């Protein structure tokens, strides 16, 4: 059984290596040029926006990958998309990329949260590692949204230091919000749930995910919440993040501005003297 599992995993990795160049240039899931009005509203993009372009005033410089992690309901996707547009970076949402990968290579659909096996979770991890290892060499600039992206980035950075090999320049951003606010936002996505159901399902998902992740990530073996902002490394710095933003009482613009200001201060992005035009996706309303 173990040999079969390893063989299957090797085949999946081989398929992914040949597939990844195609996958990055797939039509973006949230491209407003092809979205229906209903889908635009669902993804918080203003379908009535008449501003077709904006100047790309900022570009990534001393960074190849910006990871965005956090519990469901912290606003990761919406802000991540806006930052990607702002900086002209690729936006990769790990779960969406994985589902597309499975669909293209096997013809099957990954349905729902509970359908993921341990092998699938390991493949998600492997995909993120590949991006982190190869982005700089391939000249890619990526915003990578994944619930475990900050942990995997930390592991890859530590491994690179220990084994003295180059790795992409990564900035790890953690989104946090209190549980009541996260539950409210989840309810807005799934209005058929009661508040009690939304809270219960969210808690069950968090516990199951952590249980699965601990099988493959010894660095979180004794951790009860990988998004706890009080977690520290040996230097007294946040363990799995370079910057933490609490979105509980912030709207999208405030969250985006907080992250942007930090990225500017850290030297990760700079003003663009070329002022290349990029597509404007429209206004985004709130984190709900």
CATH topology-level fold name: Rossmann fold
Task: Identify low-pLDDT runs.
Answer: 1-12, 17-54, 277-288
State the name of the first-level CATH class. Answer: Alpha Beta
Output the structural class: alpha/beta
Strand arrangement across the biggest beta sheet: 4-5-3-6-7
Beta fraction: 5-15%
Count of discrete alpha- or pi-helical segments spanning 4 or more residues: 9
Q: Separation of termini?
A: 44 Å
Which overall shape is indicated by the principal axes computed on the Cα atoms?
Answer: globular
Q: What's the order of the H and E elements? A: HHEEEHEHHEHEHHEHEE
The count of DSSP E runs of length 2 or more, i.e. the number of strands, is 9
Radius of gyration: 19 Å
Write the topology of this structure.
Layout: H1 2-24, H2 37-42, E1 53-55, E2 58-60, E3 65-70, H3 76-87, E4 90-93, H4 94-106, H5 118-134, E5 142-145, H6 149-163, E6 170-176, H7 179-189, H8 195-216, E7 243-246, H9 252-265, E8 269-271, E9 277-279
Parallel strand pairs: 3-5, 3-6, 4-5, 6-7
Antiparallel strand pairs: 1-9, 2-8
Helix pairs in contact: 1-4, 1-5, 3-9, 5-6, 7-8
List the defining traits of the structure above.
alpha/beta, two-stranded antiparallel ribbon, 9 helices, five-stranded parallel sheet, 13% strand, 288 residues, Rossmann fold, disordered N terminus, disordered C terminus
């Amino acid at each position: 059984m173990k040999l079969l599992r390893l063989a299957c995993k090797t085949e999946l990795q081989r398929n992914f290596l040949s597939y990844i160049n195609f996958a990055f240039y797939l039509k973006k899931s949230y491209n407003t040029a092809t979205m229906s009005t209903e889908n635009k509203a669902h993804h918080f993009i203003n379908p009535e926006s008449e501003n077709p372009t904006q100047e790309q005033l900022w570009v990534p410089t001393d960074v190849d990958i910006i990871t965005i992690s956090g519990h469901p309901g912290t606003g990761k996707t919406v802000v991540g998309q806006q930052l990607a547009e702002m900086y002209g970076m690729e936006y990769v949402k790990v779960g969406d990329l994985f589902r597309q990968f499975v669909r293209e290579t096997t013809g099957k659909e990954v349905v729902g949260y509970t359908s993921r096996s341990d092998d699938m979770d390991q493949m998600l991890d492997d995909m993120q590692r590949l991006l982190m290892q190869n982005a700089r060499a391939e000249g890619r600039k990526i915003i990578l949204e994944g619930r475990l992206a900050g942990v995997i980035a930390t592991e890859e950075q530590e491994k690179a230091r220990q084994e003295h090999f180059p790795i992409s320049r990564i900035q790890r951003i953690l989104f946090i919000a209190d549980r009541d606010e996260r539950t409210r936002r989840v309810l807005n996505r799934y209005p058929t749930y009661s508040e009690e159901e939304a809270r219960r399902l969210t808690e069950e998902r968090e516990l199951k995910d952590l249980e699965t992740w601990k099988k493959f990530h010894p660095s979180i073996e004794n951790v009860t919440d990988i998004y706890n902002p009080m977690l520290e490394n040996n230097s007294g710095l946040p363990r799995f993040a370079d910057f933490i933003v609490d979105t509980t009482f912030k709207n999208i613009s405030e969250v985006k501005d907080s992250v942007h200001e930090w990225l500017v201060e850290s030297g990760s992005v700079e003003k663009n003297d070329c002022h290349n035009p990029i597509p404007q996706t429209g206004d985004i309303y709130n984190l709900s």
